[in-house]
Amino acid sequence: MSEAMADNTKGGSAPLPYSEDPSEVRDWLQLLKPRVMTLVVFTGLVGLVVAPGHLHPVLAAAAILCIAVGAGAAGAINMWYDRDIDAVMRRTQGRPIPAGKIEPGAALGYGIFLSVLSVCIMALATNWVAGGALAFSICFYVFVYTMWLKRRTPQNIVIGGAAGAFPPIIGWAAVTGNVTIEPLVLFAIIFIWTPPHFWALSLWAHADYERAGVPMLPVIAGARETRKQILLYTVLLAPLGLAPWLLGFAGPAYAVVAGLLGLVFLYYAITVWRDPQDATGRSLTNDVPARRTFRFSLLYLALLFAALAAEHLVLR
Amino acid sequence: MTPDERSALDRRRRQRNWAMLAALSALVVLFYVITLAKFIH
After folding, report:
1. Percent of chain A, pLDDT > 70?
2. By three-state DSSP, how is residue B37 classified?
3. What is the pLDDT of residue A7?
């Protein structure tokens, strides 16, 4: 690794000659946080599928592509801004900027370019409401979550979680040109799902966050309080998952799936809450229940939205 | 720079150039099909 690239996390490195650029294509793809993108694309697709009306398949594909690229672009800007804390967290040390593969300035330019491109294509392919919603979600993630909340408050992922909840609204708006109660309910489900999902992760990754100075809930309020909050949010989430059925835009098949998933999620949240702990609240089981809850939370959201889309496609 | 390092750099540069060509071509195709679809829609 060249000295200039090794200095990346300080933000003062001189640009490398193009011929010495050590980046590979996969590094540029990694900047787009492809794993996070998967769920974003899926929930956006479901918003698009369940929306009333018709969108030409090519335009629908373009809309999904724009949601994916927009989310990835926001992730690239996030990696640019967080390069200092990424360098000290084990989970993120291998990212392209702290690893010295991509210069910070290049990552920022890449993120801004893709953000603008995705918003413009979304607006041209569908409508300006969808384009505006995509632009708002990118700005929310970058300015509100990444730059304002993440390093300042343990409520960072509660409010910042809204950024990840926008895709169903964008998908819905791409078809209908407006935002009604239905996509807002889907937004609310992801919004309330986000805290227990991330706090389960932060229970066992708290040392990383502590080292990086990120005020995640377990770092500030302790593991015991975090477990209680996970349970409280799951208690809210379980009935909220039934809201699409109660409001009449999902049928009984969805209601059964949502009810069962909610109960299982509650069971996992209770196992986290009852996890054997020492006097300080630290887990005596290596946070096994929290790890299981984190994995199940991913499955929960995927299955819930899959049930909504499947019922709409098959039964309606 | 050793010959091996030189060859690795060349490989990465070629890979990036091909990826850029693919991305730009995809963008051209995307604009074309969006335009067609908008006319049909």
Report:
1. 93
2. helix
3. 45
> Is residue A119 within 8 Å of A131, Cβ to Cβ?
yes
In this complex, the residue of A24, A56, A121 whose CB is nearest that of residue B37 is A56
Pure H helices in A34-153: 34-50, 57-81, 83-86, 104-125, 128-139
Nearest CB neighbour to A125, from listed B15, B16, B34 = B34
Residue of B30, B31, B35, B41 whose CA lies nearest to A177: B41
Q: Which residues pair with A283 in a beta bridge?
A: A277
A61's tokens: 């594909």
Reported ipTM: 0.88
CB A81 within 8 A of CB A144: no
Residue A205 near residue A286 (C-beta atoms within 8 A): no
pLDDT in tens, B16-26: 999 999 999 99
Contacts of B22 (CB under 8 A, 6+ apart): none
Smallest CA–CA distance, residue A74 to chain B, in Å, is: 19
Q: Report angle CA A70, A72, A76 to the nearest 5 degrees.
A: 115
Interface of A with B (CB under 8 A): 18-25, 28, 55-56, 58-59, 62, 65, 121, 124-125
